[in-house]
UniProtKB/TrEMBL annotation:
Source species: Cuscuta campestris
Compartment annotation: Nucleus
Name the record gives this protein: Mediator complex subunit 23
Region (Disordered): 808-847, 905-927
Record key words, sorted: Nucleus, Transcription, Transcription regulation
GO cellular component, one term: mediator complex
Gene Ontology biological process terms, A to Z: positive regulation of gene expression; regulation of transcription by RNA polymerase II
Transmembrane segments: none
Amino acid sequence: MRCLRHALRSTPSPDWWRRVLLLAPCHRHAQSPTPGAVFTSDMISEATIERIVELLKLTNSEINCWQEWLIFSDVFYFLMKSGCIDFVDFVEKLVLRLQEDEQHILKTNHVTWLLAQIIRVELVMNALNLDSRKVETTRKIVSFHKDEKSSDPNSPQSILLDFISSCQNLRIWSLNTSTREYLNNEQLQKGKQIDEWWRQVSKGEQMMDYMNLDDRSIGMFWVVSYTMAQPACETVMNWLTSAGFTELLTGPNVQSTERIMMMLEVVPLPISLLSGFSINLCMKLALQMEDSMFSGQVPSIAMVETYCRLLLISPHSLFRSHLSHLRQRNQATLTKPGNTILVFEILNYRLLPLYRYQGKSKALMYDVTKMISVLKGKRGDHRIFRLGENLCMNLILSMRDFFFVKREGKGPTDFTETLNRITVTTLAIIIKTRGIAEFEHLLHLQTMLEQILATSQHSWSEKTLRYFPSILRDALSGRMDKRSGQLDKRTLAIQAWQQVETTVINQCTQLLSPSADPSYVVTYINHSFPLHRQYLCAGAWILMHGHSENINSVNLGRVLREVSPEEVTSNIYTMVDVMLHHIHLELQRGHPLQDLMVKTVSNLSFFIWTHELLPLDILLLALIDRDDDPHALRIVVSLLDSKELQQKVKVYLLSRGPPENWAQTGPFKRSELQKALGNHLSWKERYPTFFDDIAARLLPVIPLIIYRFIENDAMDAADRVLQIYASFLHYYPLNFTFVRDILAYFYGHLPGKLILRILNVLGKKVPFSDPFLQHINSTNATMCPPLDYFGTLLLGLVNHVIPSLNSSSKTAQTGDVSSSFARAPPTKPHLSSQPGSTNSLEGQKPFYQIQDPGTYTQLVLETAIIEILSFPVSPSQIVSSLVQIVLHIQPTLVQSSNGLHGSPNSIGQSSVLPTSPSGGSTDSLGSTRIAPSVPGLNASVFACRTGYTCQQLSCLLIQACGLLLAQLPPEFHVQLYLEAARVIKESWWLTEGKRSFGELESAVRYALLDPTWAAQDNTSTTIGNVVALLHAFFSNLPQEWLEGAHLIIKHLRPVTSVAVLRISFRIMGPLLPRLANAHPLFSKTLSLLLNILVDVFGRSTQPPAPVEASEIADIIDFLHHVIHYEGQGGPVQASSRPRTEVLALCGRAAESLRPDVHHLFSHLKADSNASVYAAAHPKPVQTPS
């Protein structure tokens, strides 16, 4: 329930909901249950009702939470439509819950409005028409109606809530005659006011002006969306087409005589108006807009923008996978190039983050790569191919976890050469910054690389490989070229060029001389070999001799437009190789480098700007892939410094409005096709652009350039590019992910100045804390931030990221209506010093405001990560600060208890054991041993309203710390293991040597209790807290990174006491069931635990005090159980059998154990069929003396 309540507050994607939800029994029929689904209909209903009660309490306390209601209604609609809630049962439970409340919290019509949103869902209509309890259900629905009394009666939402009862009565009246007698006649009569208003505003020829509606008109139109959705829909469509149409002119190179009409521009509907529409109207609008946009006429940008806004405001209820959705509606839709271009533009420039939020990026990537794989060898289709390729670049770069490059998983990829290279870079970023979550993905990595590289001749430079994660670097660094067995790509490329150079130069002389016969173009295209055609641009480069006028640009441009897109890509890569080789030859002949660079950039301007013969984005990617050459990146810097490119970007920024496209009021101005895309892409094109532009194509490319600059230690170049293009990168839809990942990828290698420049990419929309901004900009930035900063950081995660412990009913008892909602008073700005919080009054943000990273909880968590990664201090200092807070959190909270909800009396020392550390005898109870609060941490940091007692908060802060550390790079993990081992080894009651075995055993057993139990009676210990921290940390780590956990045991060895043995097992034990599907890692972990068992109970070991084997019977039981668990691959069954190799491992370890301990392993025989899981052990056989 805690998880469900958190989900309803933080709105994870529908994909997450589908994986965990069970259908309600009344909707299951013959459908098989979803594997892994855990939430029943009853649980969903209960959590949904709790959320309604929370929102009602907030509303009653005069907090403006309309946005929260809107977000919740979208999720509620999705849950109801998915069949996860039994509507009749839900209404009955909601009535009972609201009747139970002594405060009579139902004072407004928000519940009525919520039910009005779903009343047209088929499952709901069936319940109100066909269910035997339909009359009683209708009466209960009507009972939610209230007379709306708002402090602001003229606001749009107040007007909607005032009329919503009437809307619902009218709808129920039309559904079923048998329930009409229970409807409120007064509310039915009130419906006439709605009809009258609609007649007044819709009569005559005057069009409703959606940009100049007053608040009452907005509210009334929202009301109409519930009662007359179809007329409202037609009115909106009329507005979007009200400017009329014009004929799309045919360009000089277009031979088609087909007449195409294009809508003239109007102003798109503002998102503030759209957000109040009923979901039913939004669905009708989306479908009608699709019919209009893909009908053959060119829609206005306003219509396309309005359509995208609809999908963004209701991501749960309105999402559709466009390629399959449009094909289902009309198979012919995507056979028209104009329609495909429009869909690609919508996906690439508007809905990319939405697909990632939905978990549909991979499926979209597979579909689009399949489409462009057909186009890459097709002559002339450059525009749609390059747009699709750019979309795939963005999709690949948007991935946050491991992905397969083919849906089927076999054979070479459908990717282009460019996409193959970007995929390897993306895999490096994912593996290094986020890890590989599942062991099976590790097994597929080598196969994936073979698929990617099957059609690619590329290899990565040593400078790039040194930053790759070791698992990927090892797989790539040994890759031998198929033909020569060498790795020097420059040498191989030039050898291939020299073999065809004579032929290519002869052909290019005939084709590209200023006086060349134009008719030779057709001959060249039809009769030249593909091997020679891929060197066309290289030949042109050689013939230029630094003078572009030596080249027939008309013939060259025509050939490049007529050949296939993939041939153009090959031309770019080969031209770059030959160009760099030519520079080296000229240097050897004594020509100054500066003159050569000027000449090179001038020649490239001929291709890019003067005649627009080649796509700039692919050229830049080709250049940075040749970073093994010292001149390639210098050329990239010169191109990015060029006035032509900066002017293109400037024009783009001026024409696009603010980066938040959903906030633009318009009207939009459509760019001319040739100016937007250049000659190469627009030559035979007629269909206009919407959002596409040469500059926009660079948005995924510039971040990759920054990566390559840093890999090559060109920090000044990276700084300069970020400075020039900072405003431009605000338009990059994944700029938050870019900043987070680049800081993690190069952690420890970035100068402070460059870190600040990278942070500027985010603008001012990210909620960095004031202490962070002050510290990072101060002269003392190299000093570790104070503990107060880290304490507040963790508190921010507890408040906004960790699932709440409280339900609304519990919260109501404390009188704090806000604590279960956001756990910080939403009526006031959040603490300015709180990392991950904002000075906003909102508890939640709609998806369209936080598209990257997608949810508010993710925004808070990853903002905290960015802050930590930005500090120019060592990981050991940061980890030490966090661990210090965790170790002494309970006494720190005691000092701040006056500011917490928990009663001060409940915080006092009530146990016979000290706060920390714990001991097993009365000798350990001396007051001198009571743990102090954290030195240097101001206890008032925690004196805020969290809605938690001290005991609850201490546990949540440990969870938050574990979660945070798991998101950081492995450098932090190593330090955590070192620090945890140090804390355990230095614990006074393990080191002073005066304790008996019984005392230590008692202390350790108590110290290792679940920290939640320990917190309840204030007997938390440093060791208990550090073990709890490690468990919270492990539970959030990807499987690949779990192997590093062995380091903590290595630091604890040699283990000489049962106390440390028990602590080690408590640390590592919970990992073993999780590793059941990762056999190599399971075996390594099990072997490590068996080794420390031998350390203590080995045949030749002399323990400080004699210990009976029976004292560790529980540990042996655990080992018996876990190896059967691994053999089963899940919970142990009667038929479970361990793996033979695991039994052999246990057998080898048992041979080194004392006889009495060895006997406890006797049930684990080498024959797995004879091996028995022992819950109890036989007594060892007594040998006669």
